[in-house]
Amino acid sequence: MTNTPKPKAPTFAATTSSFYPVISAVFVALLVISNVGAVKLITVGPLILDGGAFLFPLVYITGDVLSEVYGFKAARKTILIGFGMAILSALTFWLIQISPSAPGWENQSAFEAILGFVPRIVLASVCGFLIGQLLNSFVLVKIKARTNESALWVRLIGSTVVGELADTLVFCTIAFYGILTGADFVNYVVVGYIYKTLLEVVLLPITYRVIAYVKANEPTYIAAS
Fold first, then answer.
1. Cβ–Cβ < 8 Å for 32, 85
2. pLDDT at res. 180
3. What number of other Cβ atoms are within 10 A of residue 207's Cβ?
4. Does domain 19-96+110-224 correspond to CATH entry 2.10.110?
5. Residue of 62, 118, 171, 207 with fewest CB within 10 Å of its CB?
6. What is the pLDDT of residue 35?
């Protein structure tokens, strides 16, 4: 009777390297910038998007790099830091908003319109981000447990499909349901989801190269391989 060899456990690097904090910092910065941009709704022809569409897909790509190279626990740590910084930025803008204006400064209404504390947007953003990113990382790592170093595209696309769907549904529903109604709301949700997912698919060659570079230059990943 032959013993079936157990599948090799997936490889992950340690978070003590110089790469991990840099990638984490980029992740958090992209998140905070995207949250500010998401305040504005924009149109591209018949399509309705929010300003976060420019950079937010890169948050997922950076999250994929963290999950693929460092694993779920390390990615979760960065996600929770990003969650905290998103709340901190919202509270900071709120404190600035309610602080007395200096004499001669006449841009209070403009500040409030763009960076003013909007509880609904903040709640939508942090809830969508937290649920979507945790699912994205969890799914990627679970697929890697089965595929190991092969079929990277399967786990990148598979995790994106799940994570972006959860994120988009939560954010759009909390932030704009009732403001956008009927076909406009469906358009906003569907187009936003398809756009973000397809953009990550288009950027797969870049994601592949970044992951390959980090793996090749991350001593703790090489040692674990």
1. yes
2. 75
3. 22
4. no
5. 118
6. 79
